[in-house]
Structure formats: structure tokens, C-alpha cells
Fold this protein.
Amino acid sequence: DGGITQSPKYLFRKEGQNVTLSCEQNLNHDAMYWYRQDPGQGLRLIYYSQIVNDFQKGDIAEGYSVSREKKESFPLTVTSAQKNPTAFYLCASTLAGGGGGNQPQHFGDGTRLSIL
Amino acid sequence: QKEVEQNSGPLSVPEGAIASLNCTYSDRGSQSFFWYRQYSGKSPELIMFIYSNGDKEDGRFTAQLNKASQYVSLLIRDSQPSDSATYLCAVKGRDNRLAFGKGNQVVVIP
């Protein structure tokens, strides 16, 4: 089945530790996105990538890093510089890679990150 | 920065009634508009999208767009208990980025 797979479902981070969240899609989508959702809040954009080997910062990129070495994969690293990492992290993808376009974004099931 | 505002909830509606959700946006250049449903603890799922002024119907859902007034709304007819969820309005600009509202919680009372 085609879709977006995020892993792990739950993740715990220790003080000073970097952790990486996985996002893989087999939809042949060009663009991929990472969002953060805090309780009672909407989604905030962390990073996005419209083509392989290129990505842009979103609204809250500080303390995070990404890579886009393959079209189907867009991992997110939460670094120790992110002082408040506890949140629900959502990966999305969409068909249109360039600016504009009306293609909707579809989401993976999310990763819930907590600090120990 | 684009802003998307959803009126505060939660919205309680009796089963079988119409639920009406509104969303306003600040970026006049916004091109496409989406409604997502999010059940507690789950990821958002797309339920409606609309690009042109007017109404778009899909089953029990109707999306309404008024670009001149910069608002988009969602009507849920014949509300069912399974419609109880948070509804997120999302607006896409020319940069292909989505801006999300904080969501409206809908509670359908049997």
C-alpha cells in the first residue's frame, strides 16, 4: 500500500541527546514537510524539501536539522539545542514540487517525542 | 507571516444537526484551501479542499470559499458521533507552504 511511514511511534530523549525521526514515503511525491504540533495548537512548519538534495527552513527550524538524500526519505534530527522538544511530530508529502500547485498534503501517523 | 484564524470552540451540536466552522486568512494571495479532520491522538486526514469561490459539496461536507472576504467555511450536515474531532483549516500560498489554524473541536451529542 502507498503511504507515508513515520517511525518510531513513540520516542524518548535524554538530556543532551540528539534523536532522529524517520519519514519514508512510497507515493513518488516530490515535496516533503515536517511539522510540530503542541497540545491545543495547530501545526507549525519546521523544515520542508521540494526536491532531492534541497530543503528550506520553516517557521521554527532552530534546534532541528534535516536531510533529503533520497526522494522517498526525509529524516528529522532533534538536536540537544532544542530545549523544548516534547511534541507530536508530523511528516507530510505532496505531489507538486514547485511553487504553487493545488495538491493537498497527506500525513504520516506521527511520532510522539518526550524528554526523560 | 501568513495567519489563519479559526473561531474558538469547542462546538457542541446534537446528532443530526448542522455543524458550521469558519476560518479567516490574512494572505490575499492564498490559492488553495483545505480542511483536515484530526481525531484525538491521531494525525490529520484531508476531508475537503477548495480552490475557487463558491461552494463545493462532498457527501455530508460542504466547503465554502469567499476570497474577497478572505474566509473559508466548512459545513457538516447530519452530524454523527463519528464526526467528533478537531477540524483544522489550512491555507496554501504561492510558496506552496501550508499555514494552519489552531483548529476547532466539534462534539456531536447523541
Notes: The interface with chain A takes residues 1, 4, 31-32, 34, 42-46, 49, 51, 88, 90, 92, 94-98, 100-103 of chain B (CB under 8 Å).
